[in-house]
């Protein structure tokens, strides 16, 4: 069906009843930006900036970061790119970053990583903020922070970026036309305080990889647990449903950037919850777009509502049969 998916490249990502679903890609390297044209995506919904740090032998200097961000923005043209600030630490430890003896971690995924580390070692974050701001001169900078657990972490990170912006203004540097701030929802605790965070956000992005690991207390890399918990389980879908509903109340665009959105049936379930933006691996864009163009979103949303309200235990089977009946 490869040729069939390729033929979809220039066709809109719209359901039978006219719901527009933004299809973006996850990326991390300079070359990934070229995938945008190849698969016909709407932008980069997650640019994992830590990749550059992980493949370097030494800490990438600010100028080097800036060059990468600029190249990615140039490749994206007028399509949006959402840059995620570094998610390092924990299991993505950098060999050149010195750690003290008391920094040994038994549970690195739940450890000193991502925004936690970035706020403590703020030199790293300041350099990255400047690189992002300068690379986005004349454009919109979309920036989001990983592993936010409480609103103050987001606020502190945004303040840090704003300080860099003020500094650049003082230097008479050319600046982005706008900076849009987002947070990743991947720590379940954040869902309980979204009413406090959402008024400050331009967008929210749900990272289902870490979110499910923390919801089920199941290591995302553990081979024995890989098949144990289903993304189409009632617990996850009800959780996501609540998040989508509150984002609607606060009118904050919400997307999913975890691997879940790249699987056709899972993507269908997310659309059934009201999600209208998915950021997925480039190879999934074709199959997911084919599904989108075949479904009726309103009908699917009614089905999802029924399934969630009735507490159906066989969601995967029910969604599969719904899709099969419609030749999806
Ligand atoms: C996630 O956790 O779902 C996510 C998108 O981020 P990463 O996979 O890089 O942790
Ligand atoms: Mg994550």
Automatic annotation (TrEMBL):
Range of residues in the leader sequence: none
Subcellular location: Cytoplasm
Domain of life, source organism: Bacteria
Family classification: Belongs to the PEP-utilizing enzyme family.
Protein name, as recorded: phosphoenolpyruvate--protein phosphotransferase
Naturally occurring in which organism (per UniProt): Sphingobium yanoikuyae ATCC 51230
Lineage: Bacteria, Pseudomonadati, Pseudomonadota, Alphaproteobacteria, Sphingomonadales
């Amino acid at each position: 069906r490869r040729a069939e998916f390729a033929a979809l490249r220039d066709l809109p990502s719209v359901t039978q009843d006219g719901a527009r679903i933004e299809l973006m890609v996850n990326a991390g390297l300079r070359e990934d930006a070229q995938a945008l044209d190849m698969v016909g995506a709407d932008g980069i919904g997650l640019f994992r900036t830590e990749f550059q740090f992980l493949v370097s032998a030494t800490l990438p200097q600010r100028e080097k970061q800036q060059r990468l961000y600029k190249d990615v923005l140039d490749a994206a043209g007028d399509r949006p790119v959402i840059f995620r600030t570094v998610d390092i630490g924990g299991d993505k430890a950098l060999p050149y970053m010195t750690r003290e003896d008391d920094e040994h971690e038994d549970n690195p995924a739940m450890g000193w990583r991502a925004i936690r580390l970035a706020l403590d070692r703020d030199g790293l974050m300041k350099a990255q903020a400047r690189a992002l701001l300068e690379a986005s001169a004349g454009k919109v900078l979309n920036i989001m922070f990983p592993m936010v657990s409480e609103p103050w972490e987001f606020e502190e990170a945004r303040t840090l970026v704003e300080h860099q912006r003020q500094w650049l203004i003082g230097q008479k540097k050319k600046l982005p036309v706008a900076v849009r701030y987002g947070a990743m929802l991947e720590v379940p605790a954040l869902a309980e305080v979204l009413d406090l965070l959402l008024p400050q956000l331009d967008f929210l992005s749900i990272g289902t990889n870490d979110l499910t690991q923390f919801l089920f207390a199941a290591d995302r890399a553990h081979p024995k647990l890989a098949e144990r918990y289903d993304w189409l389980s009632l617990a996850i879908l009800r959780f996501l449903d609540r998040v989508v509903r509150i984002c609607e109340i606060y009118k904050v665009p919400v997307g999913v950037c975890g691997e879940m959105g790249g699987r056709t049936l899972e993507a269908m379930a997310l659309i059934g919850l009201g999600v209208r933006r998915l950021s997925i691996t480039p190879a999934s864009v074709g199959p997911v777009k084919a599904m989108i163009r075949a479904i009726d979103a309103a009908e699917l949303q009614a089905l999802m509502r029924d399934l969630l309200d009735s507490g159906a235990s066989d969601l995967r089977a029910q969604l599969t049969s719904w899709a099969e009946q419609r030749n999806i």
